[in-house]
Amino acid sequence: MSQKKAASGLGTRPGGSVPEPYSSERTCRREVAKLRRITPRRKTVARRLARSLVRLGGLLCQTGRYGEAEPVFIEAVSILEHAAGANDIEVASALNNLAVCYKYLARYLDAGPLYQRALVMTERARGPWHPDVATIYHNLGGLEHAAGNWSRGEPFARKSVRIRRQALGPQHPDVAADMTALAALLDQQEKYAEAERLYRQALAIVERCYGPTHHQVAVNLNNLAAVRHARGDAAEAEHMYRRAISIDTTCLGPRHSKVGFSLNNLAVLLKSARPKESASLFRRALAIFRRSLGRNHPNVAICLENYASVLRTLGRRKEADTLARRAETILARIEAVNDEAVGVTGTINPEHTPFQLEVRPSPIHRVGVFANEPIPARRKVIEYTGERIGRNEARRRSNPKHVYLFELDKYWQIDGAIGGSGAEYINHSCEPNLRARLVRGHILYCSKRPIVRGEELTVDYQYPEITRMPCSCGAASCRGTMNKVGRDVRGSGTSRRRLS
Ligand SMILES: [Zn+2]
User: Rounded to the nearest whole angstrom, what is the distance from the C-alpha of residue 407 to the centroid of ligand 1?
Assistant: First the structure.
């Protein structure tokens, strides 16, 4: 894993239903119990119960108990779908909250499609320039951030800034939160100058609006510190981390996972200069992550790796090896799309498709892309995007398990795992409903025939015949291989390779 600091506190936001400050967990539970007793057959009672559940889930999230919040939100969604219909705006908000839980529980593939369902519903109900729409884009960016897919998150984050600025004006604290989230994706891509500018702007806005000791101030300080560290200013970075830790300890409590982020990051900073102090900070961060996020959370693994490396510096090799092995076991469980351990999020970037598409489990292979509305014949369905890489880099990234590479020509390939539109999730079929067209360096997937709502999108991968890839697409005319058949096997121009 390339990232050596725990994911910076992105401040993923719950949708419309932020709990009122006076409602404590206990009163919330009492309200839920009371409403359950009335047997919520009446729709108004059901709605009230669902709202109380959403409030309770929100409170649990505030204290970092995402595992406990998950079933609470699931129940709220199902009650609301019954009482209000599947397209109600409150359903969208509850789905968004549930997805936030999944993100923190590192269940990225559960989170992505939920956010996107919420996005479609919210856009339809509120219009495309509503702040609630910005919130879901913000969260989609946050999900990609958590999954380690920085460039894939960038367009989502930019969109949230654009929408919210238009809706609320440039000095609004919510705009600042969007800017912080965008900056976090930029700094991971080493676009430090733009990231630092955004963090400083956001910091000034939140200090003005909330005062100097608010959690949002701590988020910006923590992230800005990481950039200052990366740019070589360790002293300023340390000062900022310590301020962030003290603010968050005061306003969220000493055991909140966000305190763990800053502790871990400060420990990384001190690793070589003050290893003993660093080790004790890692121990504190670890205890916090284990308690608040569970023993198998990726942040625990990242922290373990960091801790192991400082123990090695201190000559405690045996302990270090045990911890490193533990970290490896945790990370091996996370579904990864490439050797950088980027998580699969199952999101579609709506900027690259005019249609409503959704990623979900597929009978062909793992997950696939499905049409959520009818698509006419001969239309551009989605562009295949990603990082443009050369032949040697492509060879390095080749992973027989999952590769999302599309051969553009003899030299260039597009890696959909990095900055992909979602088209990289489209499965192979020998009888596909899409065809790939190369238009001025862009790969466009176009419909060969009308596609009905709910149908899985497929394309013929036509792998070059280097290694034979068996096919089980289930089509009547399945040729038994995903390779291109015939004599012309090389240099076909747009053959897509995706080993699976
Ligand atoms: Zn087949």
Answer: 20
- Ligand 1 midpoint to CA 422 (Å): 22
- 458 Cβ contact partners less than 8 Å away, ≥ 6 residues apart: 364, 368, 426, 427, 428, 429, 431, 432, 433, 434, 473
pLDDT in the model for residue 405: 82
Helices assigned H by DSSP within 85-214:
89-104, 108-126, 131-146, 150-168, 173-188, 192-210
Q: What is the dihedral of CA 100, 254, 302, 348, to 10 degrees?
A: 10
Distance (Å) from CA 431 to ligand 1 centroid: 7
pTM reported for the whole predicted model: 0.80
Identity of residue 149: N
How far does the centroid of ligand 1 lie from the alpha carbon of residue 112, in Å? 28
CA of 362 to the centre of ligand 1 (A): 14
Percent of the chain at pLDDT above 90? Answer: 60
Condensed to tens digits (0 to 9), the pLDDT of residues 284-316 reads 999 999 988 888 888 899 899 999 999 999 999
- Ligand 1 center to 430 CA (angstroms): 4
Ligand 1 centre to CA of 398 (Å) is 22
Phi, psi at residue 359, to the nearest 5°? Answer: -95, 125
Residue 489, number of CB atoms within 10 A of its CB: 15
Q: Cα of 380 to ligand 1 centre, how many Å?
A: 23
Higher pLDDT among residues 85 and 220, named by residue? 220
Q: What is the largest CA-CA distance in the chain?
A: 73
- Quick one: tokens of 6? 């725990």
The gap between the terminal CA atoms of the chain, to the nearest Å, is 22
DSSP state, residue 471: -
Q: Report how far residue 310's alpha carbon sits from residue 415's, in angstroms, rounded to the nearest whole number.
A: 34
Neighbours of 290 (CB within 10 A): 17
Report the phi/psi class of residue 407: left, alpha or beta, with left for phi > 0 and alpha for psi in -120 to 50.
beta
Domains of the chain: 1-118 (1.25.40.10), 350-496 (2.170.270.10)
For residue 31, how many other CB atoms are within 10 A of its CB? 18
**How far apart (Å, rounded) are the C-alpha atoms in residues 2 and 305?**
11
